[in-house]
């Protein structure tokens, strides 16, 4: 039985992949709206422009509203698509004009100007022979209609924001039928490209492929965003890709990067014909990060380069501030056991042989077998967010309106506190939803040791067992990689993304360090934790200590206790506490799983008059001093720290006019004082010569201050002077 599951909008199937159950006729569908949507760049910014998740020409949709300053898009392609739709409805075409940025810039291309097709001065004639030129009016007439977009990053999330828009034309506009259909309208989404490739491999012609897609999406003929000619062009473009030469080009890029930075590392494998099979690489900053935070890694292999039919895998981690860390990337020949085995071995070699404690992957049987065979000492688990993403394909058609209730029940069972509770509730769920011998239910149950929370307790996961903490290729590389990325450009684009995410992480770390920690209890143990743990780790600790107040404690033997919720009459967890040895253990194994003392242990410690957390329960990986961005005297750090402080100062001082006047006056005096200081450090040894990327800071000339001190400041200074005189 082949499962064909509709996406959320119910109009079209998403990307299909072979189901991990092993049945060759069973597939899972991945919604384009979820994990892979940003690689498609098909969003228009207007929900009316979507039919079955595929962009359609605006002449069969409602009118596209004009862009506005502040409007945000997930990518520059999405912004171009939206502006092109608006342009077609309003009688003109759009083209890209100037751009700012380059692949070596930390943010890549960070600014684009999209203009009317008649913008700019008339183009010069190609030849001086007037007789050979057609006597026609110049197409360009200095039209000033444009939309300017700029890349903006906040908390690691990238958006393209409209910073300028003008719709004033100095020429006659055309009818929508007369406007040339530019290439953005013919953009074929990643989901559609995969389907086209599958149909083409089965021998279908371009016309049959188009009819099949129209039937699957439930649209009338001619209502797709692309036509038969576009399908033909797409297939011809794929044939023009020289996979063999691009493999050698990719290795050439690696060699060049190695020459520029000796700390860059890469591994590759060639076949018997010297053709590239696999390649893996990592950066110096990633290797340093793995040495500190490589105890738990996520190996995400859910993205494919469709044009090359190659899977891509990325190793991620999490630092003490909760930020996503990039460790390593690999492009494989296929998704077979041998390829996965090579990737794991290459990863270990790049990381100097250091093994993680835990590795989390997708629900893939081949990958699981590779981990078991080649990393036998590493705990392997399936990412719960990958498991949850497959439930719709497996059970939505089977359960219908009951699916959402099942999904909630599944999550509740996964969060069971004990194995006995999980087994009991799972059996009830199978009966309640009449699953019987459903193969997917059997698949989940047989592998429960790799995903169910009660079976994973005691292994370190650093807080990654919750659905809300998702580390994936899609979220990390959003806005940097797309389905058009060529193989030879892949490594450079990944490097740009990693540098950008590192910069975002450093900025967020600096801002967190400027925040004031708010204590929720009067316990000294909480205050002690706040001085040592990062804000991210302290937040986990604070949730546990607040929850500990809801538990009752019963002494069962000397230095052994039963800790039970005050509303329950049975169950609970056993805690042993030996104050003389500063030793505490709980049967829930919360500390072993997260590295943070659990609520049960904290409840007992409070009763034992423990005012400080024992040193061994303050893990190095959660401490403030373990930051990858320590305070230093480099220009890069100083620039980042000042920008973070300035951002907070702007937010606070703009609230009232008194605050604004006070800050403006002091900043003006401070600026004049700084200008008079020496422009070079005395200790030249403190200057860092190497950096992952150069900081680019927008500089705005400060206006000259002509007025005197604000009234509030005068009053404060006068009071201080009087007080000093009276003394």
From TrEMBL:
GO CC: one term?
nucleus
Report whether Chaperone shows up as a keyword of the record. Answer: no
- What subcellular compartments does it reside in? Nucleus
Occurrences of domain SWIM-type (ranges): 574-609
What keywords were assigned to this record? Answer: Metal-binding, Nucleus, Zinc, Zinc-finger
Q: Which domain of life is it from?
A: Eukaryota
InterPro entries this protein is in? FAR1_DNA_bnd_dom, FHY3/FAR1, HTH_FAR1-11-like, MULE_transposase_dom, Znf_PMZ, Znf_SWIM
Can you say what this protein is called? Protein FAR1-RELATED SEQUENCE
Native organism is Apostasia shenzhenica
